[in-house]
Write a structure and sequence with these properties.
This protein is α/β, with parallel strands linked by helices. The chain is built from 17 helices and 27 strands. The protein has an 11-stranded mixed sheet with strand order 20-19-24-25-26-23-17-22-21-18-27. Strands 3, 5, 6, 7, 8, 15 and 16 form a 7-stranded mixed sheet that branches. Helix 4 packs across helix 5. It is elongated. It starts with a helix and ends with a helix.
Length: 541
């Protein structure tokens, strides 16, 4: 089923719900929506130990409510609904990140917790990365203060997060990286990820192996994903003045520690978790990836370690693989079968024109209109009579239209008054003939007129009339956008002489004292005529 059609017609989706029993239940639930959030079309979601702990009821994320919950915290997919808070992530952008409720066809994400997926990675590969990237970088760099050249010990290196840590340490310039496993068959995975030394702690003495690899110093930074009884060995394996960071507790939260060793070696012990951090704090963690980590992902120095991919219907089997420690790398759930239609796409018109620069009125009596606006404080008015645009066409045919024009500013917004003075066809003449008078168009100005013109045409807009006033820098076009009177869109080049004149008119409004409300000026001004410009600037002093 086309995912967009499913969302639009039923407003429901599939989700893996926890908190109702020993396993997740696959349920049809309401499509989520929240102001400011990015809604992501989930293609793949990474499975983490914390997901299993949440299922058991021993882990509750800070953003997770009480009672049944949509599981998952690691997502890769496509932005389906963008956020004004994330203009850099429009609809259709491939993204990966951390969130709450990732095990669903759609998920809401905080804009700061998403990053674009590098082109070289597929969704399933991307889903292996976010939790590992934020966890290891925060522990290694932010918490432990790692600097290039230091040695790093990663305990529990064949976990999905540990394998990211091995690669990250090497990518950030570690002198020596030592990583541990309890399975001889997994030693090769550590070396393949970039470890200089792989230690099987089931058969080798950890401290002896680390001291041998570091000329007797020990590791400058130790990242521990295991905890439990083996945590007691880490101070001996860590350098004098070194740092031990407790990240995970796969072997349990309890340990016995010789504090004399910690004290005599002047070591720092740091504990870390993401479960109680606020979104703002998590946003800072994700932002910290930008300088070094994301470029390393983009060029392949840090890459996915994908163990297996499971359809959402087999989520229980996926959980079992992780629970049984059978995985080397990340176990991923696939939601791709819900998204077989074309990918979401950003509206090509959204924000295309920029901000409104001018409001244009078509009136029967331009003098009376100027007087009215002046009485309510808008002025001074610059009145040009007998303006004949060059190369003017109306609905594709040449037209010898002549008009009187007056312009003034109210703050940064220009007000334009137009009165057609002959019977040549134009949208202005059509507007009056239909019995209207007042706002006829809103205008957007650009210093790259041709690019905006081409984009508008490509987006399906039809040009109703166009021409130029003042040579190559004075082009304008009116688009067929009127859904009720006053909604025609004009796009206008604002360069050369026209820009100078418009800047002077804005300056005049800012300093107007109410005298001389109407200034009749030479129409040659908007064409950049040097004599006319000199006369106007002299009038301004």
């Amino acid at each position: 089923m086309n995912s967009t059609t499913h969302a639009a017609t039923s407003a429901t989706m599939r989700a893996l719900v926890g908190g109702k029993g020993p396993d997740w239940s696959l349920e049809e639930t309401v499509l989520p929506a929240q102001l400011g959030a990015v809604r992501v079309e989930v293609h793949a979601a990474g499975l983490n130990r914390a997901d299993l702990y949440a299922l058991q009821g021993t882990y509750t994320a800070n953003a997770q409510g009480q009672g049944p919950f949509t599981a998952g915290m690691e997502v890769a997919g496509v932005v389906e609904t963008g956020s004004p808070l994330a203009p850099h992530l429009p609809a259709g952008t491939r993204v990966m990140g951390i969130t709450v409720g990732a095990f669903a066809d759609y998920v809401l994400c905080h804009p700061r917790l998403l990053v674009p997926i590098p082109d070289r990675l597929g969704f399933e590969e991307a889903a292996t990365l976010p939790v590992g990237l934020v966890t290891e970088h925060d522990a290694l760099v932010t918490q432990a203060g790692f600097t290039a050249g230091q040695s790093v010990l990663i305990v529990g290196g064949t976990s999905a997060i540990g394998l990211i840590g091995v690669q990250m340490a090497k990518a950030l310039g570690a002198g020596t990286v030592i990583a541990t496993t309890t399975s001889e068959t997994k030693r090769a995975a550590l070396l393949d990820a970039g470890a200089d030394v792989a230690v099987n702690t089931a058969t080798e003495d950890l401290a002896a192996a680390v001291l041998a690899a570091t000329d007797g110093r020990g590791a400058d930074v130790t990242l521990d994903h295991v905890g439990g009884a083996s945590f007691a060995e880490l101070p001996q394996a860590t350098a004098i003045g070194g740092t031990v960071v407790s990240i995970g507790r796969l072997a349990g939260a309890a340990t016995t520690l010789d504090l004399d060793t910690v004290a005599f070696r002047r070591q720092r012990l740091i504990g870390t978790t993401f479960s109680i951090r606020t979104r703002a704090e998590l946003g800072d963690v994700v932002a910290a990836l930008g300088e070094q980590v994301l470029p390393a992902v983009a060029d392949g120095r840090i890459g996915p370690r994908l163990d297996s991919v499971h359809p959402v219907s087999r989520a229980a089997q996926a959980a079992r693989r992780l629970r049984d420690n059978a995985a080397t790398g990340k176990v991923v759930l696939s939601f791709a079968d819900a998204h077989t239609g074309p990918p979401p796409a950003a509206d090509p018109v959204a924000g295309m024109f920029g901000g409104i620069a001018q409001i244009g009125y078509v009136v029967r009596d331009i003098t009376t209109s100027m007087e009215h606006f002046a009485r309510v404080g808008i002025g001074p008015w610059f009145h040009l009579e007998g303006v004949r645009p060059e190369n003017f066409t109306y609905r594709g045919h040449p037209s010898d239209m002549v008009m009187d024009v007056a312009v003034a500013n109210s703050g940064d917004t220009q007000i334009e008054l137009i009165t057609p003075v002959n019977d040549a066809p134009s949208m202005y003449r059509d507007f009056l003939a239909a019995g209207h008078e007042g706002v006829q168009h809103i205008a957007y100005w650009t210093d790259d007129y041709q690019a905006l013109y081409d984009r508008a045409r490509a987006a399906g807009f039809t040009v109703a009339q166009e021409g130029r006033i003042g040579g190559a820098d004075g082009r304008f076009a009116y688009l067929e956008t009127e859904h009720h009177p006053g909604t025609v869109i004009e796009i206008s080049d604002v360069g050369g002489g026209k820009k100078l004149v418009f800047d002077l008119i804005r300056l005049a409004a800012a300093n107007w004292d109410g005298t001389q409300p109407v200034q009749r000026i030479d129409a040659r001004l908007v064409g950049g005529d040097s004599t006319a410009l000199t006369e106007l600037m002299e009038a301004f002093g």
